[in-house]
Amino acid sequence: MATYANIQTLEEHDNQVASLGLSPASLASKIAMAERDVLADLLGHGYEVERYPPVDDSAFATCEVTLTAGPDSPLDIEEGTLAATERELDGDRLPFSGAPLFALPAVTIAAGASQAVTATATLKGARANIPASTLDTLAGPLPENFAGITHAQAAGGRDHQLARATSYRALELIHTDAMRIADDAHAHKRKVYRELYKEELSRLVARGVTLDTDGDGEPGPNAEPLAHGFHRLTRS
Asked: 115-127, pLDDT tens digit by residue?
């Protein structure tokens, strides 16, 4: 199953979700449950999602990152090294929330020199379209002779067409479980996200959902969203 949402899309709507202490496995389970619920509700509105999955129109953001080596020796960056934001790292230099991280390519930079490379966000979504100078360090132990990092505005990140609905439903499920700890606060949030989910589902049905009817994972050149499953099927 495609992943319609992630920790970043959840944090767009609830910036305290990371503080609830969910394990990565528990978070993934809640998102998977939410995805199934969204598909079931779309099926109920006549979308043939069991036969034709929604097109994954999400995308990774990219940005130009400039790395600088100190004067003593070359700077070796291993492929997959993560550019990060210092304030979003914990004591072990691991991200504690859904703050955007960008993976760097392998590169060796001469001592005292700077070099620009293209970095790619680790998660798909619009939240990774961060402004320039957001990334200011590297996650994990700093490479020897690392002197600094700057970057341009990131662009190209795009959410899945079902990201908002999935995020609202996942947050409803998360706060339903959290009611066992603090009933009043989480009961209110559960109600809020339940209503937001209903509104987003209605908006999706009215706007339309693009289905992958030819199995290539992409919308066709003349594809249009299916405005209502009971009325017509527009092939991608």
From this structure: 999 999 999 999 9
